[in-house]
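seq:
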Amino acid sequence: MRLLAPLGLLAAAAAAPLVAWYLLRPRRRRVVVGSTFLWRAVDRPATAATPWQRFRGDATFWLVLLALLALAFALARPAVPVPVALGDHTILVMDNSGSMLTDEGGTSRAELARRKATELTASLAPGQEVSVIDAGPRARIALSGSTDAREVARTLAGIVPRHAPADLADAFTLATSLQRPGQRTVVHLVTDAMVPADAMAVAPPGLTVSAVGRDRPNVAITRIASAPLGSGEHQVLAQVRSFAQTAVTGRLVLEVDGAVVLEQSLRLAPRTTEDVVVTVPAVAGDEGATLTARLALREDVTGVVPDALRFDDVATTVLSESRDLRVLLATPGNTYLQAALGSVPGLRVETSASVPDELTAVDVLVVDRVAAPETLTVPTLLVAPTRWPAGVASTGEAALPALTYQATDHALLADVDLTGLAVATTAVLDAPQLTALASATDAGLLFAGRIGDAPAVVVPFDLLVSDLPLRPAWPLLVANATRWLTGGSAGIGAVPAGSVVALQAPVGTTSIAATAPGGDTLRIDPGAPTLLVDTVGTWQISFTGSEDAETGAPLMLPVTTALDEGDLSKPRPEPGSPAAGGEAQIGEGLRTVVWPLVLTALFLLLLEWAWSQGGRQWLAGRRDIRRDKVRRALEPDAESATPRARTKVPS
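struct:
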């Protein structure tokens, strides 16, 4: 056992006044008499006490003395050695990602991590140091080489999780830089997920990982984008992702500048993703208005709302200027496609015999019986191309396919009835990234999904060998396809939290200020105008120093949650497991035993008070009762005798 504050033992000197008080305290002898009748005539009390008496400590003295010694010993902070994962220098790496804000039954994962780290460093022995690294989207050293456990606790309490993923590789690099030769260093990571492979490659030797949290359900908006439709309306794509193990139901509420403009019902199967494409009316918002998508979920079969992370329930974007969309039709000639595209309001259709290499200014590409690009970079409608893009392969042909299935709840087939569709031949596709919206027994007839990073709609058969262009549903299908495609890629889209955004500053800009959704303002160097966005919401970027910057409106930058940050059921390491291989490094710490001593002192004082308030008389009464029982047992005639009166005689 060690004493962390030996000077606290000086408090034991308080025993001297206690002994002196017991020596000077008046103490009178108790005498049992038959009656106090003879003392009635005494009208003035007389004392027979002497100032200095022989020390005769009673039970109360010893109780108070023991309590005093216990408190003095507690002030000396005695501690016993305990095995704990501490070294000469312990580096705490605290995961500060958005998932650490998960609600774990009233307590966040960040709070659980803080408690675990505080409990670990509470056993800090003299000479041992602790450093703290805030492992957020950009790691930083929050505390370096402190020997004060209370300072470590204050630093841990000041770490606030962000909404972005943690950069553990950067944090491990900082931890390695803090190691010093000759010191036994222990690096301790507190997180809620497995360490990624790229971070593990730079992990310091002997890294020990502690996991917090448990599997929790969650639903998040992982992507949002808007695009003008050319008629004052806006197409909005909101990608909703369910990480729950049960089916999820609820609503997606869209607001423009705080006013609700649309509500869309949701029903997601366990661990699925759904792209919700809706049209916001023209009267709902103007250029520059902020559109907010918000989840309103219902309770699942267990009676609990399957949503343990709140900040990813909201996503924002900015409605851009309404303009006509440029559609490039690459075809050897197709009157039906030209007519259908030309009937959609807000589209400006251009025709080409093949797909050009440069598609920068194209909003929608339509490929009809010509070679498709190897990689799709813009939203594309593929109609029987002669060469399929990467990710799609033709495995054969099917003759006279009969429609057996049509997805009626997909936006692409809204008000479109394909019953009785006649097709001479169609290609049989192998396209795992696409979803069949209409199909026959042995072949799909209409697909939608994403090929690479671009949304795509696929019609695998030649329109000229089918009756599809002649059906009433054909113009509606083309209009739906262009809307669905532009809602998935064009317009202003939100960037995921944790991204580094390169800002296009006007010429002559001397100062750049970025205001986060919470109101914090960051100053950005105009010479290197990049911004790390770590909070979900809409950021405002202001430029000053040039005429264009002074007169222009602030740049609105919407930020949404990262794709996998809302997955709260990811595997976690075993508590205290060595992540970098080998055995967990166990050192020696000290655990103080102050509180047991304080509680012992309080108990002794409480016992002394009870003893002085009647405990002595109670014991005397019990002793007399036992004495009377013995006397009656030995003298049967004494049972009828009157108990002798006892009276306290004052001296």
